[in-house]
Amino acid sequence: MTLQQLKYIIKIVECGSITEAAKQLFITQPSLSTAVKELEKELGIEIFYRTNKGISLSLDGTEFLSYARQIIEQAELMERRYMGKKPSKQLCSISTQHYAFAVNAFVELLLGLDVDEYEFTLRETRTYEIIEDVKNLRSEIGIIYFSDFNEKVLNKLLKENHLVFNLLFEADPHVFISSKHPLAENTSVTLVDLENYPFLAFEQGEYNSFYFAEEILSTVPRKKTIHVSDRATLFNLLIGLNGYTICSGVLSSDLNGDNIISVPLITDERMRIGWIANEKSHLSLLALDYISKLKRLISEYGYKVQ
Domain segments of the chain: what residues? Predict the structure, then answer.
């Protein structure tokens, strides 16, 4: 086993495919495949599952990747200390549902870095894809929410994929609406108040199940529903159509301006928002710092952080 082989495995996971990893490593795909198979044979484990749809980490592979990253990090520290080598790029990848506080914490993480080079990834994406990202360690952590409705199903899926949910905070549902919306002056609203306005929800692709919806109370029948794929479009439609969406209520005026406001929704439901990680992985210092910044930001909004 060599450091080069460990770097190969890390690059394959980052790219999501052997073909793309080979391109970025400037070697042939057969050569890279052979190196992986030789390593698997030496260790007596299967690092990747191979199917017609591509590759994914096995359970043994997930554990191996965690150790490989630690070894490479330690080797680079030694090279910097004794050989004066330039440090590698700082790497970190986060997957999240569409939360402004997740973006804010990411911004603070980057602003706090004292490095010349980094390569970070922030994926605002669908719920199922967040789980897949963390399962296959394309992301170190993912941010999702539980409710009484979806918790049993999502928890089962997390356990099947050896993922663990860590609670950040509990939130009473709010609605995001335009500051010029007819209900903008209300101190709170009900679903009855909202029934004639368009409901905006993030589409979930082929896994378009109520259990994967980002919006709590997803099973409530509505007269008008619009599915969108990104936060900017959703906010534009909130303003242009007097629409609404249901969320945690944590809204950043720094990122989103003053055109969108948050109004409490009268309901008995609660949102339990947290981060998921692979039980076999060891979080990097950057990921731990990101979680710390998440907690500080959330506490500044008056929520009790777990």
Answer: 1-88, 170-270
Range 170-270: architecture per CATH: 3-Layer(aba) Sandwich (3.40)
DSSP code per residue over the chain? --HHHHHHHHHHHHHTSHHHHHHHHTS-HHHHHHHHHHHHHHHTS--EEEETTEEEE-HHHHHHHHHHHHHHHHHHHHHHHHH-PPPPPEEEEEEESS-HHHHHHHHHHHHT---S-EEEEEEE--HHHHHHHHHTTSSSEEEEEE-TTTHHHHHHHHHHTTEEEEEEEEE--EEEEETTSTTTT-S-B-HHHHTTS-EEEE--GGG--GGG-SSSSTTS--S-EEEESSHHHHHHHHHHHT-BEEE-S---HHHHTTSEEEEEB--S--EEEEEEEETT----HHHHHHHHHHHHHHHHTTPPP-
pLDDT at 252: 64
What pLDDT does 89 receive?
60
Architecture of the domain spanning 1-88: Orthogonal Bundle (1.10)
Residues of the chain with pLDDT under 50: none
